[in-house]
Amino acid sequence: KTFHPFSDFISDELSFTYKHFEDIMNRCMYHKPSELENISQEISMLHINARSIVNKFDEFKLFLSMSKHKWCFICVSETWLTEDIETLFCIENYQLFCKSRTTKSGGGSAIYVLDNMPVKKLDLFQFSTADAVFLRVNINRQQSCLILQIYRAPRNNAEFLEELEKCLNEIVKLNILTYIIGDFNFDLFSLSENSACDSFFTLMCSYGFLPTISKATRVSAESFSLIDNIFCNDISFIYQSGIIESDFSDHFSIITCSTFEREKMKVIKEEKTCFDYRYIEDLNNFLVEKLENFDQETNPEQACSRLLETYQIGIKKNSKKKCSSRKKTAINPWITRGLLSSINQKNNLFNKKLKDPTTENIRKYNSYRNCLNSALILAKRRYYMS
User: Distance between CA 227 and CA 218 in Å, rounded?
Assistant: First the structure.
């Protein structure tokens, strides 16, 4: 099913906006994580309903690695983080901005932003019915945008809509390109049956915000819904949107890519210093020479400092620098090629189960997933114990 709210009114006389909107909605397709490698490196946004980064942080990083794309913005709903542990869930090369709950568990919103993008967190509006993060980003010298990540629990419809309208009034005053991203828990497929969903969509449209995702983002054998979306108040900048099929969460992830280019930043090669084990014998000889008469040290602090300094100098002398590559480096060091191959096989079984949810396909997927999860846990345990 595809969401086409204005399809009956499209004609040659209507504006470019509606024609472009129709084109975006028609081209919104499902993708596997491995199919995203060739997405443009301009401005790309990814939204994930995590249903707890806390419990699935390894899976979260692995999912990002499998996409083989460096997203400009990674927006997360239902982080389940608390303020005291937010810093434990940073990702290399990204800045993290959070809105975590303080009075109860669950919920929460977060945005990961690439390090080289100038960004400022705003306190534009305080929601009591949702978890929201406001960021203003300077994309280039001519263009900046506002990004609002929202997670709203499925309750308090009237109160949320009232707060959302006040928030939209504040956004309009900025007169800026804006993306509103998140899990809103309003099913756009239910406009005619649900007055709250209809009010939500009408409110967004009245302020110039149109959705970019047109197909179901939550699917089960019994139902499907479109509750996650990326709204924009100027869709002329958007040239691609889509949905990523994965079993990371019970929600599919969604993406949107925009046409304007980022400010050209100086590319800094990521270097890693590694000890060259071919020179292990040279290191041994160096330590023997420099630590001669070490057993005669009487001051424990001096002995400790001498030992550490000697090892540091010896290791540095026999090390070399390597440029690390995101494509060649596993995001978790215990993920072997065999495990990566198994993860791809699990994804294939998941897609087969989606397209043909027979009892046998569901059984095969569940059995393979459980065995793989056990193998991943064992590999991680062995890595840290070695």
Answer: 8
Residue 107, phi-psi category: left (phi > 0), alpha (psi -120 to 50), beta (remainder):
left
What global pTM score does this model have?
A: 0.80
| Cα distances (Å, whole numbers) of residue 246 to 110, 329, 344, 347 | 20, 22, 11, 7
Name every residue whose Cβ is closer than 8 Å to that of residue 261 and which is 6 or more positions away in sequence. 42, 139, 140
Q: Give the number of other CB atoms < 10 A from CB of residue 54.
A: 15
What SS3 class is residue 159?
helix
- Is beta strand 43-49 parallel, antiparallel or unpaired with respect to 73-77? parallel
Cα–Cα distances in angstroms (integers) from residue 192 to residues 117, 189, 197, in the given order: 41, 8, 8
Q: Write out the two tokens for 232.
A: 């924009």
- % pLDDT > 90, the chain: 49
- Contact residues for 351 (Cβ-Cβ < 8 A; gap 6+): 32, 245
| Nearest CA among 308, 300, 288, 383 for reference residue 339 | 383
| Contact call for residues 78 and 352 (beta carbons, < 8 A) | no
Residue 360 is predicted with a pLDDT of 94
Question: Over 28-79, what HEC string results?
Answer: CEEECHHHHCCCCCCEEEEEEECCCHHHHHHHHHHHHHHHCCCCCEEEEECC
Residue 266 is predicted with a pLDDT of 46
pLDDT tens per residue across span 139-150: 877 889 999 999
User: According to the model, what pLDDT value does residue 273 have?
Assistant: 75
